């Protein structure tokens, strides 16, 4: 909770002055508790401690920004409440149904993406493609994943075969450096010549 407030109070809106938070909601302000199972590195002597919310509110710039944003949120909520109060029962019901349908569609989309990710992982394929393979329902999504799996595997296999195939070197015409005349016979000639020089 503290890190959210500190992020809200930051002049740039990104939480630059508030740090990453890291604390828990029930922790006293200014303290950070590491997640369970982790160790905290020793504090750096030059590192500045994260300021508490109270410390930030002492700075007039932060307080003014916090007040401005708080007032904007309150005004927005008030305007929405007044708008909804003016609606008839039928309009309210239609608006709630529209919101419910949007939430349901988002949930279904997320469920299908999770299923596609699971299927791709089971097939050993990159899960980054899951969002592009979502169909109108689970059956269509599964069919898309299977079609993609076949095409992806065929493309990888073709690429590997093309690389393996290459061009076969002519026996004795090229050596390790690839230059003509450096084959086995040239190596033997060089060894023989070297022995005779000694």
Automatic annotation (TrEMBL):
One Pfam family linked to the record: DUF4355
Positions of region (Disordered): 1-60, 164-198
Annotated Low complexity bias: 26-52, 166-186
InterPro entries according to UniProt: Gp46
Ranges of Gly residues composition bias in the record: 12-25
Name the UniProt record assigns to this protein: Scaffolding protein
């Amino acid at each position: 909770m503290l890190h959210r407030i500190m992020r809200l109070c930051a002049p740039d809106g990104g939480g630059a002055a508030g740090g990453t938070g890291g604390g828990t909601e029930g922790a006293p302000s200014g303290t950070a508790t590491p997640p369970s199972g982790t160790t905290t590195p020793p504090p750096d002597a030059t590192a500045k401690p994260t300021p508490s919310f109270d410390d930030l509110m002492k700075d007039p710039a932060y307080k003014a920004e916090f007040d401005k944003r708080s007032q904007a949120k309150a005004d927005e909520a008030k305007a929405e409440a007044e708008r909804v109060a003016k609606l008839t029962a039928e309009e309210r019901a239609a608006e709630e149904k529209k919101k419910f349908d949007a939430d349901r569609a988002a949930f279904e989309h997320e469920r299908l993406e999770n299923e596609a990710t699971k299927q791709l992982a089971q097939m050993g394929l990159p899960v980054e493609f899951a969002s592009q393979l979502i169909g109108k329902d689970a059956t269509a999504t599964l069919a898309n994943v299977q079609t993609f799996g076949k095409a992806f595997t065929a493309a990888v296999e073709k690429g590997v075969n093309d690389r393996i195939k290459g061009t076969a070197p002519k026996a004795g015409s090229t050596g390790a450096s690839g230059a003509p005349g450096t084959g086995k016979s040239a190596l033997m000639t060089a060894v023989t010549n070297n022995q005779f020089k000694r």
